[in-house]
């Protein structure tokens, strides 16, 4: 809902300014001029492991739309974003920037440092590229909006407290560090190997039709359907955890061509 409102507001602005190009607003305080150009880089630096080419193997940029991009080849350095009592510790260079909305990690980066993205409270999703093998301790600690994390099977170790968002779902492959991490920490895990489920396509043949309805009737009536292909996830149409007459009623409407 919020996104739709924002999009229509931006469209309205585009009409006012007569601009066909995307309209962007800055996110860093006074830098809010509306421009019709691509996002500008507002800050940048190195974030590679310090003992390798003085950290220059990996770079970071932050643009005017709040996208933090990490690119290069090699490990990121590790940081410490905990409370700084003696002002001597090594915080990530973007730690105190509030406007970060998105983090993009490019293929080529091989590890995510300790505390790398902790406290990025506006970031909602992250995809780890399949060059990464290690995610550091506290790497995404206190990323309180983080709802979706995709972790490839190249990742073999995930640090302590790397994630702690309460609403997180981890997307990954079975029998990987990602699945183990999700299970160990009680996070929702969705396997990227499972074919997408079409709700209502109970026999899994790719279409919703009378056959599915008949199968559902047998299931709800308690008949033995063990010899038939049957997908419970597709059958629980109202997603209440049970396959019952409520689901059957909805499926009847779907098969009849009603809008549900
Ligand atoms: Ca079917
Ligand atoms: Ca149900």
Report the CATH C-level class of the largest domain.
Alpha Beta
Number of domains: 3
Number of helices: 5
CATH architecture of the largest domain: Alpha-Beta Horseshoe
CATH topological fold name of the largest domain:
Leucine-rich repeat, LRR (right-handed beta-alpha superhelix)
* Strand order across the largest sheet: 1-2-3-5
Characterise this structure:
The chain has 260 residues and is of the alpha/beta class. The protein folds into three domains: 1-38, no CATH class; 39-191, Alpha-Beta Horseshoe (Leucine-rich repeat, LRR (right-handed beta-alpha superhelix)); 195-260, Type 1 dockerin domain. 20% of the residues lie in helices and 18% in strands. Strand 2 (58-63) and strand 3 form a beta hairpin. Helix 3 packs antiparallel against helix 5 (245-255). The chain is elongated and about 70 Å long. The relative contact order is 0.07. The structure holds calcium ion (CA) (2 copies). Residues 201, 203, 205, 207-209, 211-212 line the site of one calcium ion (CA).
């Amino acid at each position: 809902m919020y996104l739709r409102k924002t999009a229509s507001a931006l469209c309205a602005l585009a009409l006012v300014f007569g601009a066909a190009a995307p309209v962007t607003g800055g996110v860093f305080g006074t830098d809010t001029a509306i421009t019709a150009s691509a996002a500008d880089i507002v800050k940048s630096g190195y974030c590679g492991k310090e003992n390798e080419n003085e950290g220059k193997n990996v770079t970071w940029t932050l643009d005017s739309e709040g996208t933090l991009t990490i690119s290069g080849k090699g490990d990121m350095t590790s940081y410490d974003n905990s409370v700084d009592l003696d002002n001597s510790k090594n915080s990530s260079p973007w730690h105190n920037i509030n406007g970060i909305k998105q983090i993009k990690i490019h293929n080529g980066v091989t590890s995510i440092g300790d505390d790398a993205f902790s406290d990025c409270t506006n970031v909602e999703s992250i995809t780890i590229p399949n060059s990464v093998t290690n995610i550091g301790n506290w790497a995404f600690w206190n990323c309180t909006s983080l709802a979706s994390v995709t972790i490839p099977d190249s990742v073999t170790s995930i640090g302590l407290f790397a994630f702690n968002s309460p609403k997180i779902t981890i997307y990954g492959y079975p029998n990987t560090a990602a699945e183990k991490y999700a299970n160990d920490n009680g996070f929702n895990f969705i396997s990227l190997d499972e074919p997408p489920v079409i709700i209502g396509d109970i026999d899994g043949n790719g279409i919703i039709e009378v056959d599915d309805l008949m199968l559902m009737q047998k299931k709800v009536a308690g008949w033995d359907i063990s010899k038939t292909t049957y997908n419970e996830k597709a059958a629980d149409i109202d997603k209440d955890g049970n396959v019952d007459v409520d689901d059957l009623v909805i499926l009847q409407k779907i098969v009849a061509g009603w809008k549900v």
